[in-house]
Design brief:
The protein is an alpha+beta fold and 357 residues long. 37% of the residues lie in helices and 20% in strands. It is built from 13 helices and eleven strands. β6 (132-134), α6 and β7 form a beta-alpha-beta unit. It is globular and about 60 Å long. 30% of the residues are buried.
């Protein structure tokens, strides 16, 4: 989807159309840009940018507070349209998904025509535009989807793969962000295809376990299948505070609140967590994480909160100002392995839910 949150706001409020719009938090605090319209992007406004900085770059910027219930409903409509064509839909977020259309309900042999059909239906039924990338694999389709935004359609046929790869900078590689790209450039690796000739040992020292994967991607080789309804790997919640937290009691209360949120989400998905993690970002932006793994897995809010609070004691929170706190649940399972906890759940009349295989 194109500038999804901002586009939904412009669709629903005609006074915002044609104006630079940013969805996000207040510039008076530590609000950031969650999404911005293409009119705002002309001024250099980007997602994840501090809202105060975005406002300096674009003084006429219109700031809208997020309405996630509205975005989820628009996402539900879009995903339903995608699934009407193929069951092989793998959502990545509210506004993005992979589709395998090798076989499709349209009986259309050309994926490009399937993409055109979906774009047209999305526009007709939601009044929103989408961009599509069509390619032999996930890696290339993802890049192609952003090639001609907004309302774009880019097709990379097998015969065009090599010429397309030759155009790409090293940042196009999955897993290569600005820091890694800088390290690779120091080795003389400027373009994606330069990775092919890179010394394997030198590359491994620079990017670690990513080395072999980057070599494969540099040849356009991505064997990953489209996997619908992927199991949850982790569930987390975090907050950045308008003013640094300095009171230890307030920090503990925030950690407990975040842990309750995470536990609620874990239970809602019918899951159990083995590992609890916390994240603490101090006022100087130094970030630390702590984790604890324990059997049996649990979704009890009290247990998850107690473990998160114990982890907080292993940080300097309370001694140093804190700007962000987060709690996460990892090692998620769809059933309780411990018989004692299983018996307790049964006695309490609580179901042990499963994720479909």
């Amino acid at each position: 989807m194109d500038a999804f949150y901002a586009s939904v706001e412009q669709r629903d409020d005609p006074s915002l159309r044609g104006k630079p719009v940013a969805v996000g938090g207040s510039p008076a605090g530590r609000g950031v840009v969650a999404a911005c319209s293409y009119e705002a992007r002309k001024f250099g406004v980007r997602s994840a940018m501090p809202m105060a900085r975005a406002l300096r770059a674009c003084p006429d910027l219109v700031i809208v507070r997020p309405n996630f219930a509205k975005y989820r409903e628009a996402s539900r409509q879009v995903m339903a349209i995608l699934r009407s064509v193929t069951p092989l839909v793998e959502p990545l977020s509210l506004d993005e998904a992979y589709l395998d259309v090798t076989a499709n309900a349209l009986h259309e042999p050309l994926a490009m025509e399937v993409a055109k059909h979906l774009k047209r239906r999305i526009l007709e039924e939601t009044s929103l535009t989408a961009s599509a990338g069509v390619a032999p694999n996930k890696f290339l389709a993802k890049i192609a989807s952003g090639w001609h935004k907004p309302d774009g359609l880019t097709v990379i046929a097998p015969g065009r793969m090599e010429s397309f790869l030759q155009k790409l900078p090293v940042e196009a590689l999955w897993g290569v962000g600005p820091v890694t790209a800088k390290k690779l450039r120091a080795l003389g690796i400027e373009r994606l295809v330069d990775v092919r000739a890179a010394d394997a040992e030198q590359l491994r020292r620079t990017v670690g376990s990513l080395a072999d994967w980057l070599k494969r991607l540099a040849h356009g080789d991505d064997p990953r299948q489209v996997t619908p309804d992927r199991p949850w790997k982790s569930i987390s919640a975090e907050d950045t505070y308008p003013q640094d937290l300095t009171d230890g009691r307030e920090m503990r209360a925030e950690i407990e609140r975040l842990a309750q949120r995470v536990a609620g989400s874990v239970a809602k998905q019918g899951l159990y967590a083995r590992t609890v993690t916390i994240k603490v970002r101090y006022a100087n932006f130094t970030t630390v994480t702590r984790s604890h793994t324990e059997e049996p897995a649990t979704r009890d809010a009290g247990i998850i909160a107690r473990r998160a609070l114990a982890l907080l004691e292993r940080t300097e929170a309370g001694k140093r100002p804190v700007r962000l706190l987060g709690v996460g649940a990892h090692g998620l399972a769809n059933e309780v392995k411990n018989h004692a906890e299983r018996d307790l759940l049964t006695a309490a009349g609580l179901p042990q839910q499963r994720i479909p295989d």
